[in-house]
Structure formats: structure tokens, C-alpha cells
Batch of 4 targets.
Target 1
Amino acid sequence: MRLRSPDAAALLLIGAAGGLIGDAAHVETATTGYLDRGVPFIWNSALWFPVAVGLGTLAIGEIRLRLPGSLEPLGPREFVAAISAVIAIYCLTAVVSGFPESVSTSLVASVSVVAVAWLVRTRADLICGMLAATAGPLAEIAIVAADVSRYAPSADGLAGVAVWLVPLYLAFGVAVARLASTLATGSLRIRAPR
Amino acid sequence: MRLRSPDAAALLLIGAAGGLIGDAAHVETATTGYLDRGVPFIWNSALWFPVAVGLGTLAIGEIRLRLPGSLEPLGPREFVAAISAVIAIYCLTAVVSGFPESVSTSLVASVSVVAVAWLVRTRADLICGMLAATAGPLAEIAIVAADVSRYAPSADGLAGVAVWLVPLYLAFGVAVARLASTLATGSLRIRAPR
Amino acid sequence: MRLRSPDAAALLLIGAAGGLIGDAAHVETATTGYLDRGVPFIWNSALWFPVAVGLGTLAIGEIRLRLPGSLEPLGPREFVAAISAVIAIYCLTAVVSGFPESVSTSLVASVSVVAVAWLVRTRADLICGMLAATAGPLAEIAIVAADVSRYAPSADGLAGVAVWLVPLYLAFGVAVARLASTLATGSLRIRAPR
């Protein structure tokens, strides 16, 4: 691990909390549903879901620190905005999941590209985004294929999962790359609020 | 009053106009409804509503000028963007008010936090936001309790008013703190458009 | 033409692609519909539609270069964000077109003003926005009057077309003015990605 333990814990908790909030919106809008109820739940999510998102967040962060390219830290306000922006896009997918999938995908993709253009600084940040945009949907396809959960008929155009998962995970991956860069450079600690 | 009269009038009018636009969206979507029709109306609002929002906007602005912390002015384009962003979040609450309240609240809160992170500069700005996020919903709870207006069943989880009022008023309060800072420092007047 | 041929082609293609994506969202949500089916189609659009949007985009860009005022280039990330933001607003109109028209118009207008405030730099940029906000809706009114296409009853308040076309075209025009400024100054070519 290249992240110090408290920073790794922070990244894991940020991912888990964001996953819980977004997943709750998906479940409440019936965008997704859990088929396997024989597992412990927390809020609207199976317990393994926020754990998986947290570990995925940590993994993307650790990968970023192993890639070449300068670590560009976010300021404290940008750090908060980056997390909130990804959660907002996550919640947006829940709100528009009932529309024809081309419509929801166009909207989510265009909003995600705005977020990516704002947050990306280095090629390594973009690689993290593309990695998340590949691994995330693939993992969800496997979960759906295993009959553990399902996506609504209006949001299952990518082998059973939503096409808009790709831009959502892209924005997530780029944001996490910047969060990890920020934590690793310790810049959050040295900038005291006024 | 620490604001010069024209600046105070500007803040009052901005608040009243924003309140009228947002309230119209709430009434049109049946997010809210007036129960007491025996009062004069303007557009979709009881006349007292834009007056109250305008006075509240002015009050937050005056409070900001009495708090310590440097007054950080917005540029002219940011000034317009701050007003429009709060109106956009206000209208967003109308559009998503029919969703389960946890979903609408998560979306409105995450978008509001992005706006707050963009606009907040000093602890005093944040205090204005928290003050608005407390006083605003409390005032609306009192209005609903007095049977003057009501919120839709999908948006009444906070003692009869919408939970997303809290992040909406938070973004409003922080934005108004910056608007007041801008007007008080006179920076809008000295920056002529090119 | 003041744009070099490859830059003119880029602007035309960006406009045509954006038009295709947004129009598909409009057609899929029945915000708009083509009445004349005796023409070739591409995706959900009559072939003439992306051609017209592409030519309109090029025209706005050429007009910008003929207006006084310094050409303020966008950075590469802002260039992508400007395009995506306009497409996002376009898709947003599709998603909210079923709401009462005052609601959809207030939301689209407030979001568009945020985008305009972010992108506008010179009076000439704003003139391009106002030109697009005038010519675009007028052209669509003529198309609807000729029974070639129609807008849904919830989005036809401006002589048969949607009122929110005005702020949508405003944001489009300002963004295109900056895209053209960027291409004309050649600043995209000299800033290599890291």
C-alpha cells in the first residue's frame, strides 16, 4: 500500500458511503433490485455492496499512485465537490432510469464528461477512469449473471446492466484518482481553513 | 443596515424573484400547495411568499456583513451564476419531488454540496448557510403547521415539509453570503464589462 | 471563411453530432416528432436535421470571428466540457419536457444561465448566444408551421415550439462562440497533453 493507513481508510469509507447513498436511490426507484435476500442488509443495500465499492475505491486509488504522472492534489473544497459530484451523477442515474436507455445514457454520459473534464489532470487519472469504466460494469454483469441482483428493463442494455454504468464509473474512477492524489500528497492537512 | 440602500434593494429583489420562480415550479408540480386562498396572489404564489423570501435574503446578507471574516466578492459572471445555480436547485426539487424522499434528498443534497463547495470562502459564509438551513425549514414547518400551505406526501418527511429543504436552504444561504459580500465591497460596480 | 478548413469541418461535425444525440433524446421521449417520414433518416433524426445543426454551428462560429472583441480560447478540457454541457442541457430538455412548461423552462433557463456565465468572455460571445436564441427558435417555428415536425403539447408554448428552446440555443450560441475562438487561435494544437 502506498496510501498511509488513515488515508486508505478514508478512501474506503468515502467509497462505501457513496455506494450506500447511490445504491439506496437505485433500490428505491427500482432501478436495481437484490434477488438474493439471504444476506445481511444495511439501509437498502446488501452488506457486501458498500464493502465492494469501498474496496474498489481503494484499489483505484492505489493503482493511481503506482502510475506515472504527477499527483495533482485537489483543494479541500474541490475534494468535497468531487465526491458530491459523483454521488449526484449516481443519484441522477436513479432518477432517469425509467426513460428510454438511449436518453438516460446520453444525459448521464454528457454530465459525466463535464465532471471528467473538470477533474482529470494527467493521463494516469484518465487511465483510472477507463479502468473503472471497464472493471465496474464487468463486475456488475457478473453479479447480475449470478442472479444476485437485477437491473430494470429500461436499464439493462449492456449484458443485463445499464449502459450508463460506463460513464458513471468513468467519472468515479477519475474522481478517485484525484482523491487519492490529494490524500497521498498530504495537501488536505496543510491547508487549514480560514 | 450595513448594505447601502440600492444594494439592499437589489438583494431583496433577487430573493423575491428567485422565490417566485421556484415557488411557481413547486405549485405547478403540486410539490406544495396553498391552503389559504384568501390572500392576494402573484403568479402562483401568495403575495407574502416572495416578500418573505426577499426579506430573508436581505437578513442573511446583513448577518454576513456583521460576521468576522473577509468579504470575498464574486465576479460579475459568478454573481449571475450563483443566483442561477440556486434557482436551478430550487427548480430541481420541483422536478424530483415525486420520487421517494430519500432519492430526491440525496440528489438535491449532493448537487447543493457541489454548489456550496464552489461558493463558500469563509467560515462566515458557511455559518450563513447553516443559519438558512435551520431557520428556513423551521419557518416553513410553522407555516405548514398553521395550515397555510402543505407539502406533497412524497415531500413532507421533515415535520410536514421536505427534507431536501435543508440542503436547498444551505446552498441559498452560502450563495446569499457571497452576493452580499460582493455588493458590500462594491466590486460589481468597478469591473466594467469589456 | 475565417476558419481553416479542418477547423470548419470540426465545428460542423461537433454540431451535427450534438444535434443527433439531443434530437434522438427528443424523439425517444416524444418531446418532438417528425411528421414528414418521406425523407432519409439517420438514428432518430431526419437526415437534414444534423446537417442543419452542423451548418448553424459553423455559421455562428464564422459570425463570432467577424465580430470585434478578443478571441478567448478554451483549454482542451474546457473545450470538451463546453460541448458536453450543451449536450447535457439538450438531453435535460428531453427529460423534463413532460412537466408543465413553466417548470421545464425555469429549470432549463437557470441551468443555461450557469453555463453562459461560465463560458461567456466578451460581448461578441453574448451576441452569438442571443443570435442563436433568436434564429434557432424562429427556424424551428417555421419547420413546425410547415408540418414537418411537431412539439409535444407540454412543450409548444412558443408559437408551436418549446419556450426552453430559447435558453438552450442561448447556451449553444455562447459555447460555439468559444469553440470557434479556440479553433481560430489554434490554441488546441499548441497545448499538448501531459
Target 2
Amino acid sequence: MTGEEQTRRKRSGRRAGPTSSHDAILEAARAKFAENGFEGATMRAIAAAADVDSALLHHFFLTKDGLFTAAVRDVFAVPDLVATVVAGDPAGAGERLARAFLVHWDDPEVRPRVEALIRSVRSFDGAAGTVRDFLAGDVLGPVVAAFGGGRPDLRASLLGTHLLGVVYMRYVLRSEPLASMEATELAATIGEACQSYLTERF
Amino acid sequence: MTGEEQTRRKRSGRRAGPTSSHDAILEAARAKFAENGFEGATMRAIAAAADVDSALLHHFFLTKDGLFTAAVRDVFAVPDLVATVVAGDPAGAGERLARAFLVHWDDPEVRPRVEALIRSVRSFDGAAGTVRDFLAGDVLGPVVAAFGGGRPDLRASLLGTHLLGVVYMRYVLRSEPLASMEATELAATIGEACQSYLTERF
């Protein structure tokens, strides 16, 4: 048993492996970030909600930024993203990319986390930059790199910007006709715009 | 002198024509919406900040939505927008549209109002829908209509979504390389994506 688990056991009075502490922290973090915003949610409050010592949060995630990235990571964890986008006609890559994200976000397990993510981000706080950096760098960076165009950072940034805008309209504002369209139909509609950031010369 | 002006004169002790009351309300509204968010700012607090009776706000703007739209209108008041986009090679329409907005937003008088607008909008409140409806309907609707493609509401909505995403990245998050690019260079970069919503078949 690690020191962290002993700490947790002492506080909670029940046994818990590191995986369940880890998951309990992520679940508490998603709820607290959504409730109070990234800036408003404290590590202490998240620890209390997860019923663990706050030292364990720092042990697992180092910083609040790290915890936030871990908590929202699966919103962007589209399975086999690069392979899906690269396979097939290059002219359809933008639509495949859009479809992969929209199908993922429509998943009933993922969708509440999309909404929690947006609730966590207040216009001017640090979380917006963290989301942008994670989406553009870790998630879209490898996709853009696979197409080899110049200015990959700019391409990934604009692609991420447009995808997040569509998320916001579809899942948060529920703005029609975006909210009610099938994922595949909406993907066909935004496919050309996404394509321009993958393959257009600029 | 109107009843509203008499009311104002009684409260403030100084003479003011309807235009200056109108402008004072808009200025106070921009500041209060930015400070407290659309939901948090009350008509009463805006009236107090403008030193007018709150009945005058309702007289001029009917509702808080109406006041908000009036307060943010010039953020989207690109001069001669439709004529600028329609004139010239149709293949360059998307870039002309993007350039017209970016040059307008870079104007030192407009830019603080762009930031105030974003500060006013909290993720889930009514202001986000008001901005979307105004941009997609009143501002972009006539541009999209000029190109005659099907599903004009969908086109205007997605075009507006992308432009607002770029606003947010460039002026609020100040995310590089978007923040430091010249308006014309950034317009060339997002031009194809904008073009797809004007002329692509889907």
C-alpha cells in the first residue's frame, strides 16, 4: 500500500486501489470544474469531493492544469483518429475528420463530458488556453503532420477553433439546424472547411 | 422635452438630449455586461450607471436582449459588407469576407468592444444565442443570400461560428500565431473555409 493510499484509507475508512482513487478524482474534478469553472474550482474542494487527501491530486496530476487536461482528455480521444483520416481519398480527409469527431461526441457516454468541458471554461480563464493547446497540439498535431503542409501549428489551431465552435453550437447552444442534424450530414457540411486546413496551400 | 428626458434631468440635474441618453445607456450597458455577464447585469444597474431612469432603457430598447443587441451591434457593423464580398472574382469571396471582418475588428475603436462582447457572454447564458442569431441572421444572412446556395441558415450559422471562433482565439486568448498575424494574411488562411460556406454544394 502506498503512502497516498494509506492517506486515503485513513480519511475514508475504506480500502481503495490507486485506479479507483484516480478515477474518483477525475470524476470529482469534472463535476467541480463544471460547477465553478476552472478558476473557481480549488484542488482542495476537488480532493474533498473525491474523499482523498489533496496531496494525492498533486501526486497523480502535478498541477491543476494537469488535472484539467486529464479530466477532459477523453472528450478528444477519438479512436484511431490519424489512421481514419489518412486512409482513403485525400479529398475526403476533412469530412472523415469531422465525422470521426462528431460520432465520438454524439456517443451518450461522451456527450455529458463535452457539456461539462464547456461549462468549465469561462471566457478569460486559463482553461480555454489549456483546451486549445491540448486539442491543437496533442490531438490534431499528428493529423496535420500526416498531410505535410506548411505552418502545421496554424493549421491545427484553426481546425481546432472550428471544431470547438461547432461543439459549442451543437451541444451547448443547441442551435438549429446544427443541433438536430445527423453526425454524418453535418460532417459533410463542414468537411470542406476542415479539408482546407489539412491540404490547402497558404 | 419628453417624459424620459424630464426624468433624466430630474435625476442628473443636467440637460441631455435623447441621443446622448441613448449613447450613455449603450456605454453603461457595454461596461456592465462585460463586468457581470449578460445574465448578471440588471437593467436597474445599467440605468444607474448611465444616470437615467430604467424606464428609459425599456423605452429605447424594449428588453435586455434588445439592449444587448444594440450594445454589440457595431462589433459586426462592417461597412459595405455585402458589396465588398460580392464584387470581384467569386472564388475570392470567402477571403474578402474574412478580410472585411478582420480589418474591422483590428480597428482600435472596435477592438475593445469585441473584447467586451466576449466578456459579456458566459457559456450557457442567453447572450450567446443572441450574438449567434444576430451575426448569422442580420449580418451574414444577406451575404449568404447573395450567393444563392441551398440551406442559407446552415451556411450563415457555420460561417458565423467559425468567425466567432477566430475572434476568440485572436483577440481574447491571443493564441499564436493567430494573434500576431496581419489581418490580410489571416484572411487568406481562413478564406477557403469561409468560401466553402458561401459557394460549396452540400
Target 3
Amino acid sequence: MKRGSRLLREAGFRWIGVEAGEYKPKGSDFFLTTKQILLGLGDRSAGLSFETRYLEIQPGGYSTLEKHAHAHAVVVLRGHGRVILDQEICELSPLDCLYVAPGCIHQFHATGDEALGFLCIVDRNRDRPRSPSPRELDRLRSDTRVAALMKTSTDRRP
Amino acid sequence: MKRGSRLLREAGFRWIGVEAGEYKPKGSDFFLTTKQILLGLGDRSAGLSFETRYLEIQPGGYSTLEKHAHAHAVVVLRGHGRVILDQEICELSPLDCLYVAPGCIHQFHATGDEALGFLCIVDRNRDRPRSPSPRELDRLRSDTRVAALMKTSTDRRP
């Protein structure tokens, strides 16, 4: 294809030619979550200043509880879930679109019997995620619904 | 919701609180195409350097034949279509992911009985699309398949 345009075909929420890898390095606190970087990584889509990633969380799984200075644009493609956004919890269904603002502590959870899959678009150049501080964790836990849902490294499953 | 995060709920490929407007200003050469800017416009998602838009083309419709220096990241959400990418034509189906490289002349067409709907993500700050030059149009028309599919201002429907 001229000038470097290219098409990635999908089959069963896997994109051909894209590796479905670990969501984060080992040791990070997540569960049953994988990531495919569809576009915006490396030289093959060098014209993009942002990454288009597909994250998938199996039933019962969750992403890291974290915050960072960059924002997320999220569009749900499959399944159902809940997301912690500071002290709020939002239900997620297919095609819901979410803005995660800079500095917002967030964590995605898959609920129901199907995987929760969503596009998560971020700046290519961005800061590293950080864990909430002990004080921030205490504040989150002051809400009983958030306390019941959130998972931290001390809750890690066997 | 704290710190400005927010959720846009979807219903029938319309996002609540998002205007479904014209795809381009009047006089541009498109047909049966609408646009919703989900995130990245204005102050309410100021942390994003890119816009997440949803474009929808009704059966028989098409987007503008154009090129620009910025790239597109596209993820198909519904329907079927074809896209011209310089002198190539690619078939599009739900969840296919497309990189439109800088400078690539492109045009989306809805085929089949359902609307073609896709996310199209672009830099918030970007150059304006331009029409292909007469020489570029001649080059495109030298491919009979492209010539049969492409629509320009001289092909505009009544």
C-alpha cells in the first residue's frame, strides 16, 4: 500500500499481525488483562502522535489502580464492566465512551461472563503511571462501594 | 465526577450529549455522511491532544476524496465499506483497524444495506484537508477500479 497506509484485520478481537501481550510488566498489580497496540507504536505508523491500544480484561479481572498526568480516551468494544474514577464508580457497556482526566485515579474491572474489551487511546509520549499514595488510598476506601471494588497490590490474587 | 472525567453513553450509535453534525462545511464534496466529536474538542476534555470522532456514512454515501499531512487512526464499529488509499481499494468490516498515512489520498464509501460507522482519531491540531491535484486525479483514474469508485466534485449527486 502506498505511502505506508495499512489495514489490520480483526478476527475474534485479535488483530492480525499484532501481538497480544501482557498489559504491564511483571510485578504490576493487574489480573487477567492483555493489551494489543494496534497503531502508533514504532515506525510503521510514524505519522501518529498517539497510540490506539485494545485492552481486554477477562471476567473477574482488573487493570492497575493508577493515576498519571496524561489523559485516556476509551471506547468500549465488548462486554461489561465497572470503572473506578476517583470516588465514583461507572458501569461500562459496549460503545460507551469515557474520558479519564489527568490525575484521576482509575481502575477497570470486568463484570459478567464475557471479557471487557476497550480501545484506550493515549499520547505516544506520556508520563509513567503511578500508584495512589497511602493518603489517596485511604480517601478512596472511605467510600464503601469503592473500597469493595478496588484492588491494590495487597489484594493480589494467588 | 471528580477532576473532569466523564462518561458518554451510547444508544444506537449516537452518544448522549454529543451533537451529530455535518461531516464538513457546506460545499465540501461528500454524501450522506455525519460526524460526532466524542472527545478532544473544547475544554471538557482538555487533557487530550487528539480528537476521537465517530463518522457515519449511510448506504451509498461517501466521504470527501482528500489528503492532508496528518494521519488517521480508524476503527470500524459498524457496517461494511470500501476505502480508497491512493491507488489501492480496501474492504472494511467491523473492528478492522486502518492507518491512513500522511499524504495518502483517501475516500470512504459505505457498501451494503447498513451504515458504515467508524472511529476516526486525529491530532487536535492538524492541517486542513486538500483536494487532490488534477495530476493526482489523473493518476488515480488510471486504475479502472479506483476510477469506478471514486467520487469528486464533478460527480456530485443531485
Target 4
Amino acid sequence: MNRLQERIVQDGVVLSPTVLKVDAFLNHQVDPELVMDIGAAMAAPHRDAGVTKVLTVEASGIPLAMATALALGGIPFVYAKKKRAITQGDAVWTAPAYSFTRQESYHVSLSKAYLGSEDVVLMVDDILAEGSALTALTEIVHQAGARVVGAVVAVEKRFQSGREKLAQMGVQVRALAGIESMSANGITFAQDDESRTPEVMLP
Amino acid sequence: MNRLQERIVQDGVVLSPTVLKVDAFLNHQVDPELVMDIGAAMAAPHRDAGVTKVLTVEASGIPLAMATALALGGIPFVYAKKKRAITQGDAVWTAPAYSFTRQESYHVSLSKAYLGSEDVVLMVDDILAEGSALTALTEIVHQAGARVVGAVVAVEKRFQSGREKLAQMGVQVRALAGIESMSANGITFAQDDESRTPEVMLP
């Protein structure tokens, strides 16, 4: 197991067969050094891909996007917003999404000024489940005419449909902790998880 | 001028006498290395204060909270949520707030598990205007019985009431870029801005 997987075993809580609570260290209270290590692992295979921007959706993707952008040499990251701010104006890319943890529909929006056809994008997020946030982000990237090198998430629930939906849109997903199944009795990580290869191994 | 002030002059846009757009580098598209420098400056005067947690409100405070928490030695940071997630459960501290940029009332919430009477807290945010987010966060800190060493923001609009409201709650504010006035013709930074003292000077 890598350090993230160990932390999930130690501090994660399986609330139901589909809901994993990792808010002790990843998406409410955050361990910033763990996140920096995750960012280094997220960036590693893409160091020579000419990535110009790291993209995520507010709010829980932001720490990971920052760590990944730093690991890619300090390139900018952009977080799509779930509600439009008055400072954004009308020139936005936008796509619909649905949050299962908040049980609501929303629109993801991103100012056109910060994503264009010249961009090469790495998408990151904390958790991949049904893939709603990342498929919306992919739609936005397509609208902008930018190129995606892939998506990388900290935790993937393999038994949900996110990976498949993204594959249908042409986006390859990597996960640092891919979960095959989980229950109150324990968590089974995917054996083919890419975090097990040296290039993305966490310390 | 410090590096943040220079960047505001270079890339900030004054949309109205009260609205400053800094979403090219601070709160939509983000320059992660600038944010790391800001975090170091935010943390500097509090290195020996025994701070146990950095607190902010999602989403735009998150990069700064992470950078500040790293600069304080990798202590955890916690971001209060604007909408409760199902993973949070009922054990939350909560306080009302109002967003002027989104023109809506909301409740800030923070799981009780991540803030208690043993905590010593540094609050951070990107922009201080009317102080709604930080006064709500202060209320939460009071509910938890934690101790606040202060609040620090990247940008403060001095001509709005945030600093005064926080002072009335016993919270001292530092700003790295305090703005006395602004218009399409230019921005005047506060001369007494604490970012001008060596200890919090940005590179």
C-alpha cells in the first residue's frame, strides 16, 4: 500500500457500501504534506507532456490541483466554479453536473479567459465515483478546444461508473487509490492500481 | 510594493469602486508559486504561537490555507463548507453568512470533530471586504471554544467594514495588500500595511 492507501485504512470511514468519508485528511480537514506527496505522484507521469494548466472543480479538488501544479513546475491551475461569481461576467464555458454527496444539480463554469485551444490540460480531483464533476469538466475542455492529457484522482471507487463515462469521452483515468470494494469490515484496493508502479509511488 | 501588490497592479481589474477582480492569479485561475509565497508571509509572525490549525472557508481561501499550513510546519488546515455534505453528519458548528459576490445567504459549517477547545487557530482568506465569511468563521471558533491568534488575508479593501467587525469580535487582522481606494485610474495601497514590515515581506 502507498501512503494514501494506508491513510484511508487508518482514518477513512466507510459510511455505506458507496460512501467513503475521507474528510479527516483530504476534503474537509486536510493534511497538507500528504496532499503535496499526492500532487507529486499525480504530476509524475506528465512532467514531459507540455501541460499548461491543471484543472479541477471547487472545492475539494483545489488542494490537489495546487500540489500538482507546483509539482509540474508552478504552472497555473484553474478551478471551475459551481456558482457563477459576479466577477466572472458572461464569457464562461459551462456544463451541467450532479452532486451525489450534496444531492443537487448544478452548473460548472469556467471563465473563457483561462482556458483556450492552446491549452494542454491535466484534470485532477479528490474522488471519482459516478464521474459527474470530471465529465462536466471534460465537456468544458472540449468547448474550449483544449487538449486533455488525462485525469488523475486520489481515490477512485472502481465499482461506480466514473472511469467508464470518462473513457467514452476519450479521457484516461489514473487513481492513486482504486477501491474495488468496501464495507465496515475493510477496504479492498485494486491490484492494478497505477499507484503501485514506481513512477507514481507515494513516499 | 510587495510581489502580491505588484501582481494586483499588473493583473487585477477594478470592476467598480468596490469590486476588484483578481481571478487571473488568486481565486479562479491561481498562480501556485505566488500562493506559496503568500502563505509563507501569512505564517511568518505566527511561527511560535503554537497554532494547531489553519481555518478558512471554501473555496477561494483553500489555496492560501494550504500554503500557510505548510509554512507552519505541515499542520492541518480545515475549510468550512458552504453547503453541508452528507458525509458531515449532524455534529457540526454552524454560523450564517452572506456572499456579496454571489448575492446570497448561506450557512458556513464545520464538523465538530475537526475543531475543539484544545485548538489554537489562525484564520486565513483571500479577500476581506465586509467580513461576512471571517465573522462567521469566528463565531464557529467561539462555539468550539478554540483560541484565535488572528486573521490574515491576501487582499483587504480598507474602505469596507470587515476589519472593524472582526475587531469588535476580538480578532486582529493582517493584510498583505491593504487597499485604501481604487478606481479605473489606479489602486492606492495602505501605507501602514503590515506586508511592508520585513517579517511578512513577500520576496
